Structure formats: structure tokens, C-alpha cells
Amino acid sequence: RGAGSGAIAPLADTEAQPLVSPPAAFPANLLYEAAYAFADVEVSVSADAAATYKIVTGSGSKAVDQLILDSFDGWQWKPAARVGKSVASKFVLRLNLDQGLTPPGVSPSLTSLTKPDLSGVYPALSSAPEGTVRFWVTEEGRPSLVRIGRSTGIEAADKALMTAVLRSRFKPALQNGKPIPAPMEQAFGGKTP
Fold this sequence. Notes:
The chain has helices at residues 28-31, 62-71, 155-166; strands spanning 17-20, 38-45, 51-57, 76-78, 80-82, 85-87, 89-96, 109-112, 127-137, 143-150, 169-171, 173-175, 178-180, 182-191. The chain is mainly beta. Strand 5 and strand 6 (85-87) form a beta hairpin.
């Protein structure tokens, strides 16, 4: 029968959905521990939208794992549905902790950036693919835990970008007037030197 002939569409099955999901807040003293970590959290949502959480793969820090579990206190869920009825469900969420960890109003700034030496990497090209480097700026303004955020696609270029960051200096982030470690991402690309 056609859509306009009174046919009833089957009820769609849906998975549990967060209605409210406030971001995790990490105190400054734990930001460095959470750098580049991830955690897998098993979420169980009942048919009446009550939820429980359990760490199944930890971040490597008991303190960070506890903060992750505590951060779920403000979450609210819409339960999964099967044939139009609310049902209990269980699934695993992977949380990448290096995203959004900087406290509000706190960020490092660049004081001197070493230009990456790409000579020999792009000899026949007038421009290089863009890449990003993710890292933490220590309380002393030095880069730490340096890694590629978005690869240029050329290993030698990625190494040159990381070396440039390691040779650069930064003004550290301040919280309550005190230097603290904080994450940063620097983009490179375009014209070769």
C-alpha cells in the first residue's frame, strides 16, 4: 500500500542517546597525566533512563579514571528503544582525553617558533601539505609529549615538524597566576623554506 493509503510505518529501533553530556573538567594538576590518554567506559542505560558507568580500559591513572567516572554524574540519557518500547542497553564509549582538556581561559602562547627545515623533503614542490603537531607546554615553556596531530603524509616532513616544535619556546599557560602544563596544537604547511 502507498504512503498515503493509511499504511503504518514500522517503529524504528534506536540506541541510547545522551540528552545532556557536560564535558569532563580536569584540575590543572591532572591535565598532564591525562595527556594523550584514552579510556573505555561501559555505559548501561536502563529502560527508565537510569545509567551506570564502569571503566573497562583505564587511562593509566587511577585519579584520572575516577574523574572520568565522576564526570558522568551530570549526564542524562534517552534509553534505547525496540519496536517503540524503551529497553535497557549496554555499550562502550571511548573517551580521548587529549581533546578539550584545557581549563577555560588557560592556554600557552608561542614566544619563538623554529621554522621547520623542509629542504630536501620537498625539493620539487612549491608547497607542502599542511600538518599539525600536538604537544604539551610545560611550566617552563618547553614543549613535551610531542606527536603528530595530522600527518603531512610524508614521514620526513612529519619528523621535521616535530623537531621544529621541540626547538621552539612558549609562554606557559597561567592559572591563578601560576604556570601550569597545558596542551597546544601548531599547524604547519604551505610554502617550502
